[in-house]
Design brief:
The structure is a homodimer. The longest helix of chain A has 25 residues, at 66-90. By secondary structure, chain A is α/β, with parallel strands linked by helices. Chain A has nine helices and 14 strands.
Chain lengths: 258, 258
């Protein structure tokens, strides 16, 4: 079985053109099969502001009305995704941009109203990796934005962390799959203010303790839910940290274990 | 040799959501191998207006500064392309959205300043259909927006008619290729005000006469240049007309001949 790396990058890289360009140079050189998943960063909110579309959030999650979905589709699938693909080509990494609608790869359903109506937000139902595998075996790297569809013609805003974990799980049948969440910190931190306080390993048991102690809270909770979902569904390796963890052998980061 | 249809649709379909949805329903059912190429319609100008980015044109062609390129990338590669792919999936036509950067399929170079500076506008240098052929043989329909790249990381706004003809020429090595330009009229008209005055066949000789007579002028000139470029480079059939020409056996349209 060949190894496949699923790598998710977020706003801290997307929002900084120099950081993005540096990351993509290194990503392009990374040996072996790979898939890139990117979030949206702040540019969707910036465009919403320019277009006078109010940004509505609930507990850190975007409420996606019809105008907001248009903006997200334009920014995530349009500007960010296409720019990343063009930069990868410039670095001799042949790639193709994807939303979940492309190749019918990720099917989701609109989140039920219970009681918050998140609007056009999708919860993933199925992942079909067959087209992606065809491309990977032809040395083409898929680049995913955080948009899926319901196969009824409706696009749906979907959490990029969840897309990464569900893709990793989908690929686990065919590849020895590794999942990497790149973000602005060195990993899950014991003390959120101290980037040197990395918890290097978290398993199901210590995870519960860390939640009880309040060490893991807020935005880290859904990220770690995605991590454990992957590790419990045949994904071989799940790591959280700075992109260095991909490119340097001696990086300090968090590894998730069963 | 299998037959491949390259079908280009323009603003009259893109700008009208009912017309687009009706077209895509029929396109999805069209038998045989096919590629869709779409223009941008008016929505890029509408977004530019909302973002207070001035729309600059020269002889009907958009001058593409950096802000305008962002807008075009968001609208063409983001909203329109992704929406079309999602609608095709809803109609059971498996498809993948493409810009020329995806799969390194269309490489262009920034148009030289002579003397007008069109900005980030690309003239096509090479077309590589290998990835597209891989997808077509796996029953996946590529959907192209009018954006290419220079393999140095720069996206470039590119004429959709030219993308369609260059793709058709590129595919002619592998397929019996047919090129269809769908627009709002029944074909090239003898009298622009009379949709029944279709010139059903135009060849190189009659083309020159029609130019000399002033029957073919303005926007039809570059369209017909693309048509003759295709027919002179091994494309088997080139037609201009309403989308009916694809779906009805008895439609009246213009056929281009050597």
């Amino acid at each position: 079985m060949k190894t496949l790396k699923i790598i998710k990058i977020g706003g801290n890289i997307i929002d900084d053109s120099k950081a993005l360009s540096d990351f993509l140079k290194q990503f392009a050189k990374l040996e072996g099969l790979k898939v890139l998943v990117h979030g949206g960063g702040k540019s969707a909110s910036k465009l919403a502001d320019q277009m006078h579309v109010p940004v509505k959030m609930y507990k850190g999650r975007r409420i996606t009305d019809s105008d907001t979905l248009d903006i997200i589709t334009m920014v995530y699938a349009g500007k960010i995704n296409t720019t990343i693909v063009a930069q990868l080509q410039a670095n001799h990494c042949n790639s193709i941009g994807f939303s979940g609608a492309d190749g019918n790869t990720i099917i989701s359903e609109k989140r039920p109203v219970t009681p918050i109506d998140f609007g056009f937000v999708g919860d993933i139902k199925t992942v079909d990796t067959s087209v992606l595998e065809l491309l990977l075996t032809n040395n083409i790297t898929p680049v995913f934005c955080a948009i899926t569809h319901d196969v009824k013609g409706q696009l749906l805003n979907t959490n990029a962390d969840t897309i990464a974990s569900e893709l990793a799980i989908g690929f686990a049948k065919t590849f020895k799959t590794e999942l990497y969440y790149c973000f602005e910190k060195n990993g899950v931190l014991e003390n959120v203010a101290d980037d040197n306080s990395v918890i290097q390993q978290i398993n199901t048991e210590t995870y519960q303790t860390l939640i009880d102690q309040g060490v893991i809270a807020d935005g880290m909770l859904p990220k770690l839910t995605n991590c454990f979902n992957a590790i419990n569904h045949n994904v071989c390796k799940v790591c959280i940290g700075k992109p260095d963890m991909l490119f340097q052998s001696k990086s300090i980061h968090t590894t998730i274990q069963k």
